[in-house]
Each structure stands twice: as C-alpha cells, then as structure tokens.
Amino acid sequence: MSVIEASDLGLTFQTNDGPVHALSKIGLTVEKGDFVSFIGPSGCGKTTFLRCIAALETPTEGTLTVNGMTADEARRNRAYGYVFQAAGLYPWRTIAGNVRLPLEIMGYSKAEMSERVKRVLDLVDLAGFEKKYPWQLSGGMQQRASIARALAFDADILLMDEPFGALDEIVRDHLNEQLLKLWDRTEKTIAFVTHSIPEAVYLSTRIVVMSPRPGRITDVIESPLPKERPLDIRDSTEFLEVAHRVREGLRAGHAYDE
Amino acid sequence: MRNVFPILTVVAAIVLLWYAGAVWMNSAWTLDRADGPLSFGEVVRDTMSQDRPRLPAPHQIGAELYDTVIDKAVTSKRSLVFHGWVTLRSTLTGFALGTIMGILMAVAVVYSRTASMTLMPWAIISQTIPIVAIAPMIIVLLASIGVEGRAVPKAIISAYLCYFPVLVGMVKGLRSPDAMQLDLMRTYNASASQAFWKLRLPSSVPYLFTSLKVGIAAALVGTIVGELPTGAIRGLGARILIGDQFGNPIMIWSALIAAAVLAGVLVSLVAVMQGVAMKRMGFAR
Ligand SMILES: Nc1ncnc2c1ncn2[C@@H]1O[C@H](COP(=O)(O)OP(=O)(O)OP(=O)(O)O)[C@@H](O)[C@H]1O
Ligand SMILES: [Mg+2]
Questions:
Q1: Theoretical Cys-Cys bridge with A44: which of A210, B20, B65, B217, CB 3.0 to 4.6 Å?
Q2: How close A93 gets to chain B, by Cα (Å)?
Q3: Protein residue with its CA nearest to atom 4 in ligand 1
Q4: Among A184, A213, A199, which Cα is nearest to A246's?
Q5: What atom of ligand 1 comes closest to residue A46's alpha carbon?
Q6: Are B263 and B220 in contact (CB under 8 A)?
C-alpha cells in the first residue's frame, strides 16, 4: 500500500500582495519504506509540501491521502514524526526530557517511556547525555536529539525539513550515514528536504526535483544505488550519474523560469 | 566582590551630597534664630541637630532608625519593625492576589480574542487613573459593604498596582513560543491543555519572574498609598502621614528609608527565587 498519495495537489496562499502559488499540480506516490528526497531552489514549495503531508497546511486543490486517510486524520493518528530545520528543543527540559515530551503527550506508561528514551538516544548516539540541557550540546548533537524525539513514538512516517542544513560537512556526512542505518533498522518511510545534491543522492531511493513559481515537480529519479551505502559510494559512477541527472533537472527548472 | 567598591563610592557620594544639602537647606532656620553673627562652624553644627530640619542629616535619621528599629519593643506602636510588619503583611497579600489575578487574566487574554479585546484596554485604563484617587474610594466602598479594618482594602489597592506588570509579562511569556514549537505540538496531536502546561507555561517562566520583580515593588507602593488616607495609624504609610501632620521630617524620612529597604529586600528575594527557578529549570548557563 502506498503511504503518501498526492494527485493534482495545489496550494495557493492568499497574501496581501495577491495570491502566491506555492504548489501546483503535484502528483506523487510514496511507497512504504521509501526514502524520498525533495530538492529544488529556494521557494519552490518543498517545505509547504511537507507541511501539507503533516496537515500543518491545507491544500487548496487536489487530493492527498496518507496511510489511506486524509492528512489531518493521519495527524490525529500520530502518523508523523516531524524534524524541523532548527532542533527546537525545549531549553527547560533535559535531553531525555525533550525526547520524552511526545511520549508524555501520547500517554505512554512510565516504564515504556524510559525504555524508549534510552533506545532512541542509543540509536542517535547520544547515550550518556540524558541529563544534559540542550545548551550544553553542540548543534549537531541537538539536531540528533530532535531526530530521537521524532523517533521516540511509533510514527511510521518521518518528515525531515533540511534537518542538517545548518551543520558542517563532516558532521553532516556522519549524520547522513547514521540516518541511513536508522532508516534501515526502523523501516520507516522518510520524506527529506535538502538543498544538497550529494546528500539527496546519497540518502534517497527516490529524488523529487522541484522548481518554483508555481512550485511543481519537474523530475522524479529512481535511484539505482543499492540499499547498502558506504560513504565512498559517492565516488562511484552510478552515484555521479544520478547526481548529474539531478543537476540537469534543477537547471531545466531554472531555464523554464527565465 | 569587584562590585563593592563602585557601590560604596556612590553611597559615599550620596551621603556627602546629603550632608551638603542639609547644611544648605537648614541654615535658613539657623540664621533666623541667631542673635548675632555666626561662624561657619556654628552654622554647620546647628544645621546638623535641629529638631525639625527641612532636610534631616543622615546621622539623625540613623539615630531615629536605631531607636525605632532596635530599641523599641517590636509590639510598640513606635517601633518601625511593628509598622514595617503591618506593611509587609499587606504587601505580600496584595502581591499574591495581584499575581494570581495577573496570571489568570493573561491566560484569558492569550486564549480568547474576546478577552484580549475587552480586558486589555480596561487593564491599561486602570493604570492611567492615579492610585491616590482610587485608594480612598476603595476604602469607602469596602467599608460601606461592611468590610472592617484596613487589611483588606490595603491588599486590594496593592493588588491593583501589582497585577498589571504580571499581566503584561505573562501575556508576552505565554505568547513567546514560536510557530515551530506550536507546530511541533500539533504534529503530536497535543490537546490545548497539554500545549499550555508543557509549552506555553514553562516558556513564560522567565517573563513571569521579571514581572514579579516589578510587581512586588508595585505592591509595596500600593500598600503604602493605601495606608496614607486619613484614619490609618499602622504601617509605614501611616508613619509618613503622621510625621507629616506633626511636622516631624525625621520620622517621615526614617519611614521612607525603611520602605526603601523593605522594597530592596523584597525585590532581591524575588531575584533569588528567579535565580533558583531558572537554574532548576535548566535555563541558566
Ligand atoms: N504562510 C505563508 N504565507 C504566504 N506565503 C507562503 C507561506 N509559506 C510559504 N509561502 C510561500 O510559498 C512559496 C514556497 O515556500 P516554501 O517555504 O515551501 O519554499 P521552500 O522550497 O521550502 O524554500 P526553502 O528552500 O527556502 O526552504 C514561497 O514563495 C513562499 O513565499
Ligand atoms: Mg523550506
């Protein structure tokens, strides 16, 4: 069964300067266990699309189903973990407390909570930092904590909006590697927004290339790369070919624009 | 400790200026009474020890404070400890009342558009009316509905001044979570009350303490104003009034100093509580 199905999806913001067509005629199907990356120039509607899936934004045209229901029903069923560009940890909660937040809201038992907190913090390599406060951690560690927070409950869809955008390349590589392992272990469906071509190619099973005004999909690339991906796969010819195609897609979007 | 030196310098400068002012302002009375020409030393000596000086010298106030704080029995009507206690009690009651009112109103303002449109203008108007105009009315009104004594009206006047900074601070604090943090709550499908207890309220704590510091000082001012209208015989405000009626500046000034010290202590206590709370909540760096 497909997890996310969008057809002819459109979203127009009514602003004081007139309508802004953030999304137009978006058609996309995401299967269970897919790792889908969205890439495209700034303002092409990547965030908006992700927010539509999470029912934080309501499309003005077309249909969108998540797990066979409307996006808002899926939200109420707690189908998503959402990782924002900024870690957005609560400064008054420890790392463990931050990860526990969704669990408290969803009413997990005490024992279950501590078991899960421990498990996901292990998963993101933050064991031992339970009692630290966010400001005591580096930006990369905070971002990992926010990923742990999104993993703590049983959402089978992970929505990530440029989660590593603010981090340096080395940390980013490391987190990408970890994210792939994590995806492999948890079998979640991941929708991932990025500006980086290598990141998109390295992580994804499918790459969705978008272009702006109005925001639309210009290309969907199925990755031929195997599921097992060491970092040096980025030097392989297949990798470079995919990267090339993404770049062409991005360029085509721009040409159309001019 | 590095701060002590500049603080002491400023205090010394104030005391010096004060003495100079006392000599200058009280000398008229000295010269009025003089039979013949006086030397500068004689003038200065006299200005330092008048019974009803225009501006009492610091050591005169010190002596009065020593007498009324240390020497008098704390139950005596002449003890500043007694009057200070009366004022303190009413200040704390008014502070508690005002804080609760301010917080509840802030919650209403943040959650209801109607409340925000109706309450806020009234709250602002309430603060533009001089408290000295309102205080007697509150006392009269409460007396007419049978509230005996001064404690209740004083606390209400005190709360009247105190709730406003708390209201403004808490509205700001409860609105401080950004869109992303609220969206996060939405993705968890959190209820409104969960979003309040787990996000809005904790976010507002730093704002709350900042306004509590203003609030407790305002509560003290409110209490003293509540003690001023005729009839009050207890409290620092009453001391100021009585000193005024009996033309006793030393009494007025020592009550003023006592009120200032009380204010300083109360604000510092709130600051300490703020420090502890911030630290325990992990805000401290
Ligand atoms: N709440 C809103 N109100 C009005 N316009 C909006 C709103 N949110 C987004 N837009 C507009 O919709 C378009 C798409 O925005 P979106 O944030 O989805 O872009 P993006 O692809 O995520 O860009 P970036 O890579 O810079 O994050 C932009 O033109 C933006 O100005
Ligand atoms: Mg974006």
A1: A210
A2: 7
A3: A13
A4: A199
A5: 21
A6: yes
Domain boundary among B14, B38, B55: B55
Which pTM was predicted?
0.83
Subunit contact B187:A104, Cβ cutoff 8 A? no
Q: What is the CATH number of the domain that holds A74?
A: 3.40.50.300
- Determine the number of helices (DSSP H) and then strands (DSSP E) in chain B: 12, 0
DSSP A214: T
Nearest to B184 among A55, A82, A133 (CB): A82
Let me know if residue A39 belongs to a domain.
yes
Same domain, B33 and B152: no
Structure confidence by residue, pLDDT tens digits, A92-124: 999 999 999 999 999 999 999 999 999 889 888
Percent of residues in chain A assigned helix, strand, coil, to nearest 5: 40, 25, 30
Instruction: Check CB contact of B198 with chain A, cutoff 8 Å.
Output: yes
Q: Do B180 and A84 touch (CB under 8 A)?
A: yes
As for how many domains chain B has, the answer is 2
Kindly state if the Cβ of A45 falls inside 6 Å of ligand 1.
Answer: yes
Supply the residue whose CA is at minimum distance from atom 24 of ligand 1.
A42
- Measured distance CA(B220)–CA(B47) in Å, rounded: 33
Distance from C-alpha of A177 to C-alpha of B159, rounded to nearest angstrom: 59
- Among the candidates B38, B55, B72, a domain finishes at B55
How many domains are there within chain A?
1
Of B107, B212, B236, B120, residue with least CA distance to B162: B212
**Distance between CA A223 and CA A243 in Å, rounded?**
10
* B13-58 pLDDT tens trace: 999 998 888 888 888 888 888 777 878 888 888 888 888 888 888 8
Q: Is A13 in the pocket of ligand 1 (CB under 6 A)?
A: yes
Please report which ligand is nearest the Cα atom of A19. Answer: 1
Whether residue A188 contacts residue A158, with contact meaning beta carbons closer than 8 Å, is answered with yes
Q: Which domain holds residue A30?
A: 1-79+157-163+191-258
> Which residues constitute the domain of residue B22?
4-55
Q: Name the closest residue on chain A to residue B177, using Cα atoms.
A: A90
Q: Which atom of ligand 1 is nearest to the CA of A40?
A: 21
Q: How far is the CA of A16 from the centre of ligand 1 (A)?
A: 15
What would the two tokens of residue B265 be?
């202590």
Distance of CA A96 to the CA centre of its chain: 22
Instruction: Determine the distance separating the centroid of ligand 1 and the alpha carbon of B170, expressed in angstroms.
Output: 32
